Amino acid sequence: MDSSEARESLTSREREIIRLIAEGKSSKELGSSLCISAKTAETHRTNVMLKLHLHTTSELVRYALRNQIIDA
């Protein structure tokens, strides 16, 4: 799967995870916001970053900005 296919295959939950991470939320805060455990939130974070071939949170924030998941 190339990066454009990965972007198109993001679920609404994954987009929400990206948005919250880009807003600076921790895994614990993600879990609280989404009514899931911090461990599940961390698993979502890991899966999103693997799917998008990203390695750092700053790359994820740049991705969110470029793809209009968050506003500048």
Short description:
With 72 residues, the protein is mainly alpha-helical. It has helices at residues 3-8, 12-22, 27-34, 38-51, 57-66. Helix content is 68%, strand content 0%.
What is the CATH third-level topology name?
A: Arc Repressor Mutant, subunit A
The ordered string of helix (H) and strand (E) elements is HHHHH
Please identify which CATH superfamily we are dealing with: Winged helix-like DNA-binding domain superfamily/Winged helix DNA-binding domain
Query: Runs with pLDDT <50, length 5+?
Result: none
Number of domains: 1
Oligomer description = single chain
Task: Report how far apart the termini are.
Answer: 28 Å
Q: Main sheet? A: none
**So, CATH architecture?**
Orthogonal Bundle
The total count of strands amounts to 0
Averaged pLDDT, please?
A: 90
Radius of gyration: 11 Å
Query: How big a fraction of the residues is strand?
Result: under 5%
Description:
The protein has 72 residues and is an all-alpha fold. It has one domain: Arc Repressor Mutant, subunit A (Orthogonal Bundle), CATH 1.10.10.10. Helix content is 68%, strand content 0%. The chain has 5 helices and no strands. The protein is globular. It starts with a helix and ends in a 6-residue tail after the last helix. The mean pLDDT is 90.
Structure characteristics:
mainly alpha, Arc Repressor Mutant, subunit A, 5 helices
